[in-house]
Amino acid sequence: MARSGHSTHLTSGRHRARQPQTQKLMENEISELKNYLPERTSATRMEKRAVFTAIARAAKLFAPKVDQGQWKKRKQMYKTWLFNNKKKKERKDMIKYGRRWAPRMVIYQQKWEEVLKRIKEESGAKPGGPGMFKHYQMAVKRVMTELSDDKLEKAKETAEEWSNNFPPPEIQAQVARKKGPAYMEHFLKEMWRQCGMRMFVMLAWKNEQGEVLFGMHDDNEALGDGDSFMKMKDWEDIEPCAGARDGGRQVQGGCKRIRKPAFKLEMDGDGMPLLPDITKLTLEAKKAIVRAFLTSHYRICSGIDKAVVPWSAILQSQDDFVARKYLLADVDLKEPSKLQNWDTTDLLNFWYAWQETGEGPTFLFKAWKNRDGDMVALVVSGRSPSHPAQKVRKQII
User: Fold this and answer.
1) Spatial contact of 332 and 315, defined as CB atoms under 8 Å apart
2) Which of 194, 229, 260, 269 has the fewest Cβ atoms within 10 angstroms?
3) Residue 345: DSSP 8-state
4) Measured between alpha carbons, how far is 334 from 227 in angstroms, rounded to an integer?
């Protein structure tokens, strides 16, 4: 009985000795997993294995020393953490402004040419290609191991500085190019959704070459039934000219602006726009003609020289603005930049053919929308048929 009791006691002791201690993820491990969560979330099924291997290697740098068996369990903990936090990161309305810089990120930014060279030499992966990511962490790690303690400490200080304040201009230029549009789109959408505010952004920034770029961002046509602010006014008078200045110093390269092509139409004796032959014109030129043609007619209809065509309202209630005889049955009027090639060409050919007959007006708006949202009939004008001005109906915007 004693032997049996002694044996039971030993077995129990051995069982307790073999029981693994509960593992917990270190704070730095979790921080590293958070940094790579977007890559894990956006990876395809074929890429997930390679992406997870790279993430695990990165997190291992901050993990305590463990044996092979414990490492397998720790990788499973990484998978569990990534899965549990996936939905939170996948929400479309979540966007992270800024980032927390880690020393390895600073080292990559400072020695990216060396890192890419090593990846190509050691794995043959093409920089920027889909197979590069799984070799990235190892290449950065090898570069880090060759740095002195002083340089590693300096990288940590730099990471803290960039996180708490801001990175240098060349890094900001990269972020502006990669994430700027997403930041603005999210901000404008949230201001509309949460505050009911419509906004558009005028912006200027320097690219990696030090050139000053200028642009505007407007998503109002995609929010509710709003109209684009950018199409309500000609903003050229407040845009920076080619000789942009920075702190009183002439900037090399000036401003770069992408403009919709403008097209000036000739007028007939009654002041009505005349369409040209479009046979040899490009699609962009045709769209510019449609814009100029309809804008001219809308201004004639309203009697306002700088009236802006309400494209969104026309798309929703086309028959309130234009009689069907001036349009093709299978083509709807919309903002010209959104017209397909065949729609643009068919509309212009239809109007041009009518113009060539010389029988009546080629096109007319029958009503326009005032600032109060009222539909107002064609006004009396020397350039258009006489109609008494009258309110057609009240449209609530």
Assistant:
1) yes
2) 269
3) H
4) 12
- Three-point CA angle 367, 368, 371, nearest 5°: 145
Average pLDDT over residues 181-194: 82
C-alpha dihedral sign at 327, 331, 336, 340: negative
Which pair of structure tokens corresponds to residue 330? 């299978």
- Contact present, 37 and 55 (Cβ < 8 Å): no
Longest Cα–Cα distance in the chain: 123
DSSP 375-395: EEEPPP-TTS------EEEE-
From start to end of the chain, where are the E strands?
A: 201-206, 212-217, 245-246, 249-250, 255-256, 266-267, 273-274, 367-369, 374-377, 391-394
pLDDT confidence tier of residue 233, bands split at 50, 70 and 90: low
Which 3 state secondary structure label does DSSP give 352?
Answer: helix
Number of H helices, E strands in the chain: 14, 10
Higher pLDDT, 97 or 105: 105
Contact 362, 355 (CB under 8 A): yes
Least confident range of 303-312, 313-322, 330-339: 330-339
Starting at the edge strand found earlier in the chain, the sheet holding 367-369 runs 367-369, 374-377, 391-394
What is the distance between the alpha carbons of residues 360 and 171, in angstroms, rounded to a whole number? 61
pTM: 0.38
Tally Cβ neighbours within 10 Å of residue 156: 14
- 59 close to 32: Cβ distance less than 8 angstroms: yes
For 160, other C-beta atoms within 10 Å of its C-beta total: 14
112 vs 43: CA distance, rounded Å: 23
Answer whether 156's CB lies under 8 Å from 189's CB. Answer: no
Q: How many CA atoms lie within 13 A of 1 on its CB side?
A: 0
Q: How far apart are CA 106 and CA 170, in angstroms?
A: 13
**Burial class of residue 64 (count of CB atoms within 10 Å of its CB; 0-12, 13-18, 19+):** exposed
Reduced to 3 states (helix: H, G, I; strand: E, B; else coil), residue 33 is helix
Residues in the chain: 397
Q: Which 3 state secondary structure label does DSSP give 24? A: coil
Tokens describing residue 107: 């080292």
Which amino acid is located at 359 in the chain?
Answer: E
